[in-house]
Amino acid sequence: MNDKIKKKKNKYINQIKNIIYYIKKKIKYDYLQIIINSEIGKEIKIKNSNIENIENKNYKFIKINLYKKKKKCTFICNNSKKNTLKKCINYINNTINFVSKDKYNKLSKKKNLIKKNNKKKLGIIFKDNINLKKIIKICKNIEKQSINYNKKIISDGIIFIKYINYNLIYNNNIKCIKNYISKYYILINNIYTKNKNNIEYYYKYIIKHKLSDLIKNSNYLGKKSSKYLLKKKKKKKIKTKKYNIIFNKNISSIIFNYLYKSIKANNIYNNTSFLINKLNKKILPKWINIIENPFLYKGIGSKPFDNDGFNTKKYILIKNGILKTWISNYKYSNKLNIKNTYNSGGIHNWCFKNKIKNINKKKLIKKMNNGLIIDKLLGQGVNINNGNFSKGASGFLIKNKKIKYAINEITISCNLKKFFKNIIYMSNDYNKNSKIRSGSILIKNIQISGK
291-319: per-residue pLDDT in tens? Predict the structure, then answer.
């Protein structure tokens, strides 16, 4: 960790101490929680071999949760100036008395909240020296690869992003400030083709915690993006009927994200999930196991503690297709009288353990033989209350184990229960750009509306 990062972290620690001082002078409270999240970075865009834009990013929010007599008041601001803090504290002081009581409005007892950060190496920050000239050269090379692959490919810009993320939390019952820092880099290749009838856009991205890992993986970004886009240039419509479907890994991560939403403790408590009666019951094929691992080295979702300040823990979510726990934070674990899974702020890394022999994407297509590959979903048509799923989609028609042509203007209509139940295989192309690291999935007999 270099001196600049250390200074910034110490600055945020001092800001938390100042907030505590100002609040103590003004308000009597039972519990106090202060969260600072800050992202500082740089974004570079290259287009047509020129630097189109270099922009410094500086995003920050301060969240104050104050608990008093079973009441909770929250205030969020983006700076720690005295005038802002005074307004914030006055707002809390004037509002807290009008908030309704809830016996679960409290922080954990001191003995239940672990003080020290996990000491495991997470691989979320490395000493990387950024050479802007080298980054710009890499971006130009990716763009050159894309447009040289075929004359019909047009660049819409290569974007490089670097972020340093600072996370700090103070809970008055442990009287210490827990913190961690992460760093990540993103490369995005934006390209398109056009003809008389339409413009077809496509983008592909890589996200890594370590700069050298990003650079290594950038070699394929240009050619593969262009090759894939050209396959989608000429699209056709297909008949309305049931098809076997492969959801590409990026889409399967989205499908499993609906599973996450359906088993969140707050949705279970509020009776707003179609899986409300499925705890300790089979919801996925028996060969699928899902493990939440917040300590996965270089994982996108790796972190030492959650937004409540609890140290994260590794646990089994799905065992042999059976749902083993709801995903909870401190408040809703108390409301449901279940064990806390330490997921305040969201999930960490879902790692899929496939008991069926590992197969790659090509073998997955061969096993399907005939059907569709879906690489894009459109619209908002998912109802977590009942599991109904209806979304526009596009992708490819597969005949005799080979891509025949691209397809569009179709609608997938199903229920998420059937999606999860009818998964036949998952390939081993696990999505490392997501917290949900699923591979491409083959699902049988899904209704498709076409022409």
Answer: 999 999 999 999 999 999 899 999 999 99
Handedness of CA 1, 167, 338, 68 (dihedral sign): positive
Distance of CA 340 to the CA centre of its chain: 21
Sheet holding 315-319, edge to edge: 322-323, 315-319, 288-292, 350-354, 436-437
Burial of 214 per CB tally in 10 Å (0-12, 13-18, 19+):
buried
Classify 255 in phi/psi space as left (phi over 0), alpha (psi -120 to 50) or beta: alpha
Q: Which residue from 368, 361, 363 is spatially nearest to 438, judged by alpha carbons?
A: 361
- Report the alpha-carbon angle 24-29-30, nearest 5: 130
DSSP 8-state class, residue 311: B
Q: What is the largest CA-CA distance in the chain?
A: 74
pLDDT tens string 424-435: 999 999 999 999
φ, ψ of residue 104 to 5 degrees: the values are -90, 5
The number of residues making up the chain comes to 451
- To the question of pTM greater than 0.85 for the whole model, the response is yes
